[in-house]
Amino acid sequence: MHEDEEDPAALFRAAVGEVAPLRKPSQPPPAAPRPRPARRAGTDEASAGGRIADHPDAVLLRGDASAFRRERLPARDWQRLRRGQFSAQDELDLHGANALQAEALLARFLAEAVEAGLGCVRIVHGKGGGEGVPVLKNLVDRWLRLRGEVLAFHSAPPAQGGTGALLVLLARR
Questions:
Q1: I need a labelling partner for 48 at 20 to 30 A (CA). Which of 22, 54, 143, 152 fits?
Q2: Strands 91-93, 120-124: pairing kind
């Protein structure tokens, strides 16, 4: 038995063989343009009436935090929301839903939460798969901004879903 056969590093080098360093690209590849949100044929802004897909705004990317606050929400409550100090009284998980299903589920969920007098809910939209723009994350963000009963929302703390979930404060009736 040779000395090399007992040395794990020597065995590894023998198994791998010769290697060559990777070449570094001289310039990074150009960034792909961001896709624009699709509009449904035959609709316009006036007839859309609050449909989320019809209100393009800034696009949120996979790791971006979502945040929104109405002026009537006290600064103290906003800080507590941002820190994740509110307990969610109910949760909606939109994983697996397409945009139309998500909008219907979200509308029904918020209506029921307001009817029940809930103050804080969590909406799980996911972080988005692949390298494209996260569709549900952007749709939920835009749609919640249009709802009068939504006082504020912020991405959840990491333990509660991070940038794949929102804590939403609702106005009490």
A1: 152
A2: parallel
Closest CA to 62 of 167, 162, 169, 168: 162
- pTM, two decimals, is 0.65
- Rounded to whole angstroms, how far apart are CA atoms 90 and 164? 16
Candidates 86, 85, 155, 84; CA nearest to 124 is: 155
Mean pLDDT of the chain: 79
Single out the residue of 82, 35, 46, 54 nearest to residue 142, CA to CA: 54
| Separation of alpha carbons 67 and 81, rounded Å | 10
- Sketch out the chain's domains with CATH numbers: 66-170 (3.30.1370.110)
Confidence (pLDDT) at 25: 61
